[in-house]
Records
---
Amino acid sequence: MNRDQDDLDEDFIKLSSKTLDLPETKISSMLNQRVLQKVSGSYPDYYRFEKGISGFEAGTAVFKHGDNILVVKGFPKIQRAIVLEPAIKVHFEGSSSIAIEEKMNGYNVRIVCFDGKVIALTRGGLICPYTTEKVTDEIGHDFFQAHPNLVLCGEMVGPDNPYVPKNIYPDVKSVSMFIFDIREKTTGKPLTIEKKYELCTRFNIKTVRYYGEYPIQSAAEIITKIIKELGEEDREGVVIKDPGMNHPAIKYTCSQSTNNDLKYAFQFYNDYGRDFFFSRVIREGFQSVEWDDNEEALHDRCCRLGESIIKPMVETIKKRKQGERIAEDVRIRVNNLETAWQFEDHLKRLGVDAQFEEPVFENGQYLILIRKINKSTNDRTSALLDGQLW
Ligand code: ATP
Ligand code: MG
């Protein structure tokens, strides 16, 4: 609690108490405990929920604009089906059909319009200057002029992606936004699937791939088929939704995507949480049983998993042994160098240790390589090579 009480915005506490429907004392204590944090430095100053509390998801952003308080609800967690068939039956009990969408692999963005400016919020509720530049170009203002109270929720994918760099979407050469939900700003309530696609079509906004609506009874079988096809293309998986959006969505992913995650993460084995690895191994076990793997399929699955774990680690250990620094190389492409420097500050705020290389001017834009140093993996690997005990 190194926060100076004077620092707290009394005005904000008073005004937001009404809008958030929380007592002023509660808001003060959330600020003191840093559950609700003021974000300064970028335009505009605002507050964000660092954790989920009192009905507000983590990542909820609260802006003060004159005497008005504007709330942008956080994006809800999507639970995962481990065994598809029973999970769909239990979760969507009472519904006759479900809608299937592709789950794209990038990072979650909420786009809103505030004070005439388009703003991109990442999952944790921080305004990302890089993403903001991209969505301002790609999506623009038209949608928000007609619908100022709606939020576009989408996945930012592609290789020029500083958070989840993936080169698996052949049509995306740089980075691009694919919308998957449209929600009300203040309540977070989603529009129905039909309304969402209708609005996106009307405003010429790209969406994730939509497979359509299917009866509950045949859903698992259809999804299994889709998952196998998506896996072949190294794509991530599906999100299963209630067409009226009256139930929370659930997700299900391909074995190939699980393995690709592991391959990537085991290069930086000490920087990722253990649960990241554990949950992925568990998925493979259950999928093998649900899909009734024969001897050969099971053997392949085991080899694939082992390789995804050990090979990237061996690479890392060898590199470190030769004195190399283990780093995640990502890149951004900006119109304006100012955006890159703002993004550098943004990464500092996130506590990421990153080195920005000299910008390269290419086709009217600046390409900048960023090396994110994975300190924990570097230190742990060196120490173990030097004889430290586990
Ligand atoms: P969480 O489990 O909290 O939702 P996570 O980072 O573990 O977060 P993922 O496993 O990637 O999440 O799955 C959820 C995320 O999938 C969403 O937050 C969203 O960014 C992304 N996503 C991609 N495609 C879709 C889609 N069609 N519908 C909904 N979300 C999608
Ligand atoms: Mg994801």
---
Amino acid sequence: IEEKFQDLTQETRDLISSLPSEKGWLVSQMYQFQGRWHTQALLQGLLQCQKHFEAKDSDIILVTNPKSGTTWLKALVFALINRNQFPVSSGNHPLLVTNPHLLIPFLEGVYYESPNFDFSELPSPRLMNTHISLLSLPESVKSSSCKIVYCCRNPKDMFVSLWHFGKKLAPEETADYPIEKAYWYASLENPNKVLFVTYEELKKQTGDTIKRIAEFLGCGFIEAEEVRGIVKLCSFESLSSLEANREGKLPNGVETKAFFRKGEVGGWRDTLSESLAEEIDRTMEEKFQGSGLKF
Ligand code: A3P
């Protein structure tokens, strides 16, 4: 995908010309900034976000690497925090008619599309998502008491998921800096601020993980029936069969069905050769060594 230089602000153009760059796979060129590789568009969104986003103590920010379960986490937390306004068992839940990405803003995406977007207009608690690394988060996110839920996924499944998604289009970034490691340490150092969950545990124990998220977010008591309702409403089978997710499009043109492929753990075995899987294992070993983080 060719990104258009003329769509960028002068500030991004100036910065880009000073950054290390490499030919990209999904987009023509990638740029290294604060330890990670970015597309032009998401780099501009990130810069705007760093400059303008003011976190509030009541904010909830969902952080993931692309293809790590963002859509699922968005659906789960949306259902959880809005369960009084939208009972999960009601037949007219917003998630039944709207793709999760249209219900929860993607910070750097919104800032790229609308540099002057006013996040202060969103009702409280504001629920947002981002792929920004811990290092690059706007200062106010770190200094406020806002909550971060970080979800990571086995890098081999994430890689395969990204590869299939990329074939369907979409300018996304490939991760070089191990974002997982930074959030993992942040969650250990400050467990009230950052909750670390994995796609794999969400798959294995969806209900228990929702309860952990609810406790972390201070959502109060949640009935077992409600937890079951959220699990069912947000399941791969349920979300992927809805018209809003089969037929819809995001404002940037990405088809909503691209976010629902297989939703499995360990599916990388169908796509990766043994030697490529071993290479990824070696890189993971090197990057996560000594962190205590296991996939
Ligand atoms: P696969 O490509 O392995 O199937 P993201 O939302 O971060 O873009 O991640 C997309 C991945 O999450 C895809 O993985 C997709 O199928 C999976 N996914 C989407 N919705 C899901 C759900 N409700 N439950 C489980 N997995 C889901």
---
Amino acid sequence: ATLTQPYDDSPILLAKKNGTAIDKSTTYDVCEDYEGNYRFAPIEEAQVSRAMIKRYFNMMYERAVSDVVIVGAGSAGLSCAYHLATTRPDLKVTILEASVAPGGGAWLGGQLMTPMVQWLTSALLAKVVRKPADRFLQEIGVPFEDEGPFVVVKHAALFTSTILSRVLALPNVVMMNATAVEDLIIRTDFQGRQRVSGVVTNWTLVALNHDTQSCMDPNTITAPIVISATGHDGPMGAFSAKRLVSAGLLKELGNMRGLDMNRAEPAIVNGTREVTPGLVMTGMELSEHDGSNRMGPTFGAMMASGIKAAREAIKALDA
Ligand code: AHZ
């Protein structure tokens, strides 16, 4: 038998599923035999390579000019992407994430609560999401416990995996992970103003090795609006805020202040804006830009700031 029968259409599997008898006298084109052994359709290795290469490089080709680039796929960047891409399905939204795993700090609620400590109470593994961000949780379909002034999602990974799957399923969104933004494209417009007009990219593994090799030049993506969501300072964080300083577009970094939940959340959400022409900033990167407090493990402001950043981007695009 030639093994071309699609798996789901296998007469044997269908007979098993429907509880009907398998006709053993007939030879079927199937991937599973009567004993339950699987046989795979033959494949050339090059088919696998080409299936990836064609799609990935077509995507890069198509997204070399995007409508909006979002830098950083943490809780703020992903919330922004979801709101932007669902509100404006006409926009080509391109997300760039330096890490292999998108999600930023939102895989854990606070402190490094790994599966080794699962025996601790669920509250210790939980991610606190203060209201009114619970409406966003309802919209994307993440269950939570209502604790009055705040709500609790039983595991941060439930939020992050859900929003990732929602965002990646949207037809106008692409995400390139393991891809770092190394620089900003900054042009002078007709009025002589400096304007962010896109990003300079490289594979993160290359970006981390510039000191060990001779020149490894980058690539570019142009876009009328860049949304920076790179988090507070760290090995890669606060990327655009720091670059704005070295490019002379921001006098100095405000530097993130100490933890104060009550001050931090409104400061981040209310401060979400186009900080320089062409660049909207969201999430904890703003604390470094503006010098506002950190809030620790409460993520409501990240969602609300992401949503506001999407609105600011639309406003700037439509202006
Ligand atoms: O890998 C970074 C992370 O996933 C990514 N990133 C940073 N620099 C990048 C670059 N190119 C591409 N140059 C880059 N990607 O940006 C993402 C930032 O996610 P995050 O979770 O660190 O930031 P956020 O603002 O979305 O969420 C902050 C969550 C925090 S931190 C905090 C505290 O410390 O008090 N409290 C909260 C709620």
